[in-house]
Design brief:
The chain is of the alpha/beta class. It contains 12 helices and 14 strands.
Length: 321
């Protein structure tokens, strides 16, 4: 079993690689090798099998062709230009989030090996006039370029799966929090930084009010779901290979209260409230009421509480020393 993680240098890619290394198996087979690829060399991962690090730009078809070979059994396509960046730079978003997905699919088509392809989409594919709550049968109506590009990727994944060119499955990720590391260019980045930085003893800025609601999932649970998603049989997925990954809706105030319940009152005092219109314009169009019945029926799970999200960060990702 050869596994490829495109976007293997990112947060979820690295955590997924470590989880696969600990498991040693996927889809009932022993993992024989793992390839991690990104625009720059991913960090190394210790594993009981060979782990190869590669550079690849999925916007470049030749780079993709050199990366994916006929021995690749499972591909995780995690790489993306994130929301605010895709909104600022239409070409960057189109090249990676749309053409990059097409390049991966076309390489799989040319090989004729029908690998399992796990694609991470986003709840940003919803918006506008879609009624609440959003269900498995709600139509896609993105209100950002990022959401539109992800929706196009989903349609391509479904069509290539229908044709038998890949065995695809796509998961619309909730906002992942609490993310370790540094803020990125995603509009949702503050949804981690307002917790991560205070837990690290640093000040953070919150650009929205305490009553702002959103749909969340922890990094730990996301990785567990991605592994489970790869192991689903094609027959269980039905005619639509894409679905919302389970999460839960909390307000900013509830998240901060959860942090206080776990870590005490000091971190919340480091949050400064400053409205940022550019961020608010993007995130106010996002939806937060979801009923992910299909994914739940297939065995994917949400976090039990946001206190758990805080505990997972403290256990897995809090900088030591």
């Amino acid at each position: 079993m050869k596994v490829l993680i495109i976007g293997g240098g990112g947060l979820i890619g690295q955590k997924l690689a470590k989880a696969l290394a600990a498991r040693g198996r996927l889809r009932g087979d022993v993992i024989s090798s793992l390839v991690l690829t990104d625009l720059v060399d991913p960090a190394p991962v210790d594993a009981p099998f060979p782990v190869e690090k590669r550079r690849c730009d999925i916007a470049d078809r030749a780079s993709v062709d050199a990366l994916i070979d006929a021995d690749t059994d499972v591909i995780y396509l995690l790489a993306a230009v994130v929301s605010a960046h895709a909104e600022e730079d239409l070409d960057a978003g189109l090249n990676t989030n749309m053409l990059g997905v097409l390049n991966v699919l076309e390489r799989c088509r040319s090989l004729g090996t029908k690998p399992v392809l796990v694609f991470t989409s986003s709840i940003a594919v919803y918006g506008g006039e879609v009624p609440d709550p959003i269900t498995d049968h709600s139509f896609l109506n993105p209100q950002t370029s990022y959401g539109a590009q992800k929706a196009i990727g989903e349609l391509l994944l479904n069509d290539y799966s229908r044709r038998g060119l890949v065995d695809g499955r796509g998961f619309r990720l909730p906002t992942i929090s609490v993310r370790p590391g540094k803020p990125n260019r995603a509009a949702s980045s503050f949804m981690s930084s307002i917790l991560r930085e205070p837990l690290n003893g640093q000040e953070a800025v919150c650009p929205v009010g305490r009553d702002f609601p959103h749909y969340y999932l922890s990094p730990r649970r996301c990785v567990e779901n991605l592994i489970r998603g790869a192991e689903l049989e094609a027959e269980a997925l039905g005619q639509n290979r894409c679905m919302v990954m389970p999460g839960r809706t909390w307000t900013i105030g509830q998240m901060i209260d959860a942090m206080t319940a776990v870590a005490g009152p000091a971190p919340a005092k480091l949050i400064r409230w400053e409205e940022q219109p550019d961020i608010l314009r993007i995130v106010s169009g996002w939806r937060y009421a979801f009923e992910p019945k299909k994914a739940l029926a297939l065995g994917l799970e949400a976090d039990e509480s946001f206190e758990d999200n805080i505990r997972y960060y403290l256990e897995d990702d809090l900088p030591r020393g």
